[in-house]
Amino acid sequence: MMWNVEEFVRAAGVTVDELAAYVDESQRGVAPVIRRTPPRELAGRLGLARWIREGGMTPEGYAEFLRVYLAEGTRLHHPAQLGHQVAAPDFPSALADFVHGAHNNPMAIYEMGASAATVEFEVLRWMLSKAGFGEAGGGVLTHGGSLANLTALLAARASAAPGAWTEGVPGDLALLAPVSSHYSLTRAAAILGLGERAVMSLDVDALGRIDVARLPEALERVRRAGRRPMALVANACATGTGLYDDLRGIGEFCAANGVWFHVDGAHGASALLSEGHRHLLDGIDLADSLIWDAHKMLRTSSLAAAVLTRREGDLDAAFRQRASYLFYGEQGFDLIGRTVECSKAELGLKIFLNLAWRGERGLGEYVASQYATAHRFWELARERPGFECPYEPESNIVCFWYGTGDQVGIRERLMDDGAFHLTSAEVGGVRHLRITVMAPATDDKTLEALLDRITEPETTTGPR
Questions:
Q1: Residue 366 counted as domain residue
Q2: Contact by Cβ (8 Å): 81, 75
Q3: How confident is the model at residue 216 (pLDDT cuts 50, 70, 90)?
């Protein structure tokens, strides 16, 4: 069935109008930041069963559906959205999603999307340059940081055990990582065939940062256990706390001992664009591999994550595949040999359009602004009785504690009426409240209001 182009134009106009109103309302903070309607009730409100069974949606019916759909979601552009590490997408990235929805060029095979692939090549060249890998490095964009970590560790495995793809994984490999690492690292180890027991913890300080002085002890423990390190992982920054590991110290240790150095920069690598914060990533050029999520601090929609390697050949060695309908003749421009995905979305377009509109400087200013707002929250919280902050923030993530009660209970109270969305994390084995400043609309007024609401007696809260 061919497109009805006239109907598409009408529906697209509805989409633009509804999204514009939604984002405007969200940025002004005039609606709840989050709703938690039970699934069955929400399905009825959206008329899902009827639409699935009968079809027949028109632009007018679509407008009504979209209005409810948007209102019942989580408003990432809202000033009180302080929850998870997901971007408040900038509009150029949204345009890229719109284009891809119709264009749909799965460009891991160059002939399937020459323009999309070329855009990705240039975006990757830019990212490799910012990381200090230059012309010798290699890269690819993937659908998310978890897949990016898996891909980087596949490259590390190919380096440590070149025969693993065909012969299976040797039983002596180990992955060295701090307990503060993202859960996807342990999951990747299991997927790769190492098993969770192959993930060996590094010594850390009280805040979960790698203790560089104790790395020799950690390496000796690995060897005494009859294992050899496949890779050592550092955080830039840690998902829970937003704190950066000492990349230069770790990188120099890895280079001196022949250990593959992987940096999980999913969230914090974007600080490379901020003149006042790029020092946090000093030594990143020593990494053998790095991941960098654009759908966090580069403000693209989900998902767009880069896998970067210091040596291009290392990434090319990660996969081995056969398919007579795909792999024949010269494959010089195809990216499929570097990814799990075959039908890969036009991810580079999201990053490119944000860069094309805002520029490298504009994105760097956004990073600096969000980091500064988080630091401001730390300053305000310390001035208030009953609040404790275990560290001075280095990024846009802050963990804190209030009073002597249940911190998760405080979070639930704030979210019940949709006033604020924040999360929770453990620091030093103690559960804290946690904010991640992502929305550009978050300001001092928002931060003061959050502190006020936290200190309110529970009996005074309720729907507003």
A1: no
A2: yes
A3: very high
